[in-house]
Amino acid sequence: MAVKELVALEKCLGLNSGKYSSRAQGAGKIPVLQTNKGPSLVGLSTIASHLVKEAKKEELLGSTAEEKAIVQQWLEYRISYIDRASSKEDIRNVLNDLNHYLKDKVFVAGNTVTLADILIYYGLHPVITGLSVQEKETYINVSRWFSHIQNYPGIRQHLPSLVFIKNRIYASNH
Amino acid sequence: MKLFVGEGNPHGVKVLAAAALWAEHVHINRLQQEEKIVPFMSQPRLPALDLENGNYLFLSNAVCRYFYLSSGHDVCNLSNQWLEWEAVELQPALSAALYAHVVQGRKKEEVIASLSASLSHLDQSLAGKPSPYLVKDALTVADIVVWGSLYPLIEDASSLPEEMKLLKHWFQTVSQLEQCQKAVSFLMKDGGSSVFKPYLQKQPVPITPSGKPTCNEHEGEDMASLSEEDIQAAANAWAKGLTGAQKPKQRLHPILPVEGEKNVLITSALPYVNNVPHLGNIIGSVLSADVFARYCRLRNWNTLYICGTDEYGTATETKAMEEGLTPQQICDKYNAVHTAIYQWFDISFDFFGRTTTQHQTTIAQDIFHRLLKRDFLLTDTVEQLRCETCQRFLADRFVEGTCPFCNYEEARGDQCDKCGKLINAVELKKPQCKVCKKSPVKKSSKHLFLDLPKLEKRLEQWLEKSFSSGDWTSNARFITRSWIRDGLKPRCITRDLKWGTPVPLDGFRDKVFYVWFDAPIGYISITANYTDQWEKWWKSTQQVQLYHFMAKDNVPFHSVIFPSCLLGAEDNYTLVNHIIATEYLNYEDGKFSKSRGVGVFGDMAKDTGIPADIWRFYLLYVRPEGQDSAFSWSDLMLKNNSELLNNLGNFVNRAGMFVQKFFNGCVPEMELLSEDKRLLAQVAAELQQYNQHLEKVRIRDALRCILNISRHGNQYIQVNEPWKCIKGNQQEQKRAGTVTGVAVNMAALLSVMLHPYMPTVSGLIQEQLLMPQESKVLTTDFCCRLQSGHQIGNVSPLFQKLENDQIESLRKRFGGGQLNGDNTEPQVKTESKAPPCQEAPLKEAPKASGPERVKELMQEVEKQGNLVRELKGKKAEKSTIDTEVQKLLALKKELALAEGKSPDPPAQKGKKKK
């Protein structure tokens, strides 16, 4: 899963595909990248951040100290909250928090797209796929952001485009 | 920036250490307990860093990283990897271990042993390095983050396993840093790990990492469980089209029951003539009954819907005196008011009559004679108040006084408006004749009583049958049962009044029938006024299903007293099969009140500029079914804009537009794929629900089905994107045709289903789609009723958006508040003191001109606004613009006054401004 995602990210960044393997950790798997120089790198956000630097697109990691910290915070949120959400309630909590957070934002961090947008988009894709139209309307800010990111050039890759309805059709969600 | 740490929260250690090491200008706030600092997180999350520009950091590693970065350091790949490892691997294991030790009291060595995998990973990573640190040869954020996590549990390097020498050395080195020691003593106060107990106890039990759940796996949406058979059946029904469906029947008067067919007689509670009905009255009876009547007609059942004004009684006499008219004149006046209101709301009575007719007298007296003959009437003397000045007994509303229960000073003779209790007029304290204000005397008067105890058994037997076979709403059953349970008492059926049906019995000739005996007979007499064959409905052996619609306060009269009279008359009268009673509709947060001018009354609805169908829709949407509900302006706006405009209207309009734009107004060929068939099945399921609900008179629920269908339709269009397909290759164009064809057929179906609720909109859709007469029929299945090749007409939007400003000004206008509050006082006074004949103009004036003036001013404002825009557009001279702007501002001010505050704004001023 995570490896597939990193391959998509490589394509999105215009990099050649690297050598990946997975290491078991608990019941999950952690991706490992074999780098040409130095030791291998372990972990989704570590590898993703490394790929961005390789592609010379550091702006995707944020430009100021503050933005960098925010980007990394949301990468951690992705791997330790979104990926670990197991029950419907966990998922609801994640969507609720994100929906609230994105209320006044176009991107997760700063005013441009960052790695945080990309990895949260990848991580949420299966969640959003499973939402009903009504739920999508409930998490309207997440939906707006998601729809925006999936249409951002290069990001979506192999993932199917999800449908959002522009008009609100449920009255109870206001 | 502000750093918030929680008392006894172990995550505070690392952020405090990082702050001391690298941060400048950070203000540390210590919170006694977990508080919500990060506005977008639903749960409190500490530690948190408020960056004071709207951004927050709420994960402790991110806080540490930020401090580290802001001191000019960079975070390398390896540091990233440690931070990620800490978050994903170490932290979950540590939380569980700390919890086990501190809260569950497990031994420290034991829980540290459970961390051995993580600890030896650390130990091994430190091997072969020249420096004692995790990354490179200096202290980095990685050391602080990992150390900070471990510290609350480990505290002392000696707790670490003996063999992990490097780890122990590293731990000791970091612990000895001055900043780290400070952080520790700040948070732990040398109290050991037990300081974390109160915090940890409030946390959910951590899941041990081994039980780490899988991620990103979600069950599919619980879509309505449609079986393959359902889908196939829906496809078959679709293909069959309207062949075999019944043809719409014409309404030919007089409508009479037909042997062997379903015959439905519908009544709605007769509105009392002396008042203008408010929205609650309208939804409670006439509108609800109208929806059902229209539905019955759609089903081709023989349906007769009758209603009329209830005109006899003390209230009419009082009102007549107030307005200086005769009771008959009052009835004529208000009957016309009622008729106009119901016409505007598009209530489809087959006949709207009144109770002051010869038939009423004949039938009521006949029932009375029969009851008398069968010995179901008793005579008794009653103590009553009599005004010697006016020479008459003071029934009910002719007397006012102090309520014996709550001491309210203006209680009426029959009921107290304040506490709502029923009052026997003689129990009033300090009674006063309402006309001459003198105190009345107690006198006894002879009256006739209906012997309900004697009829009780018969009634119960019949009720049992009706309850089991009919659709009584649960409140109707409940109220009726509680009446029977409390035991029935004889009830007085005569009154010392003049305005009523005369009692045809010597000794009682100066009396009339009490309204509750008289009024329900109105249903029969009104039918008699509609057709001389009324007995076919009311005394027939034919199967007639009788439905009474009302608000719950009317239930006992329809379920106990009226049936008792009819049973006692032994004349084969049709008895009620179904009582459909609503709860109450409130207005915003309170009650409708005519005297306080709160709420929208029937005659004002049309002045709002909101079409009748929108009113109907909203009232039915919030119909108090099962529990009280409330009318709310903002909700009305919301429902209009979301349900009608965005959902229903949008779908119907798009479906029609696609046909018009892409297929020259001609319904295209349809070739159904499996997903189309699935949709057909979904629509069919909703349609089935709709029919089931309406057969049981669950009006509000059935309306939801309509909205669900258009929701399905919107999704269908959105997913299939016919506007894109139409530009594609031949196959895609075909697809666009199918989707459009199915959608426009859904719109056609919706138009029929909508008819009971919004007859005008329904007609509009049918007109736009040029639906042939025979297709305007309600089917049990969703079938193709607009075949390919059918030509549709011009499509235009069905609904208009309601704007906030508009709704706000309406809310102010009908909110009671100061405007009406100020008016109430003088009105009440004039009512009591001034001669009656001056009453009418006084009462009417403010109500009629108030809204008009507002409307006038609104137009003025709009006009002036346009003028200003025009001038600005033309770049006119500044001084010219300024004068016009001043005028506009003055007008707006005046409008605000007229809408909200001033009781009497100068009326002429607005006109001069032209």
From TrEMBL, chain A:
GO cellular component: aminoacyl-tRNA synthetase multienzyme complex; cytoplasm; nucleus
Gene Ontology MF annotations: translation elongation factor activity
Any one biological process term the GO annotation gives: positive regulation of DNA damage response, signal transduction by p53 class mediator
Main location: cytoplasm
General function of this protein: Positive modulator of ATM response to DNA damage.
Subunit structure: Part of a multisubunit complex that groups tRNA ligases for Arg (RARS1), Asp (DARS1), Gln (QARS1), Ile (IARS1), Leu (LARS1), Lys (KARS1), Met (MARS1) the bifunctional ligase for Glu and Pro (EPRS1) and the auxiliary subunits AIMP1/p43, AIMP2/p38 and EEF1E1/p18. Can interact simultaneously with MARS1 and EPRS1. Forms a linear complex that contains MARS1, EEF1E1, EPRS1 and AIMP2 that is at the core of the multisubunit complex. Interacts with ATM and ATR.
Entry protein name: Eukaryotic translation elongation factor 1 epsilon-1
Gene giving rise to this polypeptide: eef1e1
TrEMBL record, chain B:
Alphabetical keyword list: Aminoacyl-tRNA synthetase, ATP-binding, Cytoplasm, Ligase, Nucleotide-binding, Nucleus, Protein biosynthesis, RNA-binding, tRNA-binding
Any one GO BP annotation for this protein: methionyl-tRNA aminoacylation
Gene3D superfamilies for this protein: 1.20.1050.10, Glutaredoxin, HUPs, Isoleucyl-tRNA Synthetase, Domain 1, Methionyl-tRNA synthetase, Zn-domain, S15/NS1, RNA-binding
UniProt catalytic activity: tRNA(Met) + L-methionine + ATP = L-methionyl-tRNA(Met) + AMP + diphosphate
Chain ranges of the WHEP-TRS domain: 853-909
A Pfam family reported for this protein in Swiss-Prot or TrEMBL: GST_C_3
GST C-terminal domain residues: 72-199
Renumbered residue ranges of the record's region Disordered: 813-859, 895-914
Its EC number(s): 6.1.1.10
Any GO MF annotation of the entry: tRNA binding
CDD domains per the UniProt record, alphabetical: Anticodon_Ia_Met, GST_C_MetRS_N, MetRS_core
NCBIfam families in the cross-refs: metG (TIGR00398), PRK00133.1 (NF001100)
Name the UniProt record assigns to this protein: Methionine--tRNA ligase, cytoplasmic
Species the sequence originates in: Xenopus tropicalis
Name of the gene encoding the protein in the UniProt record: mars1
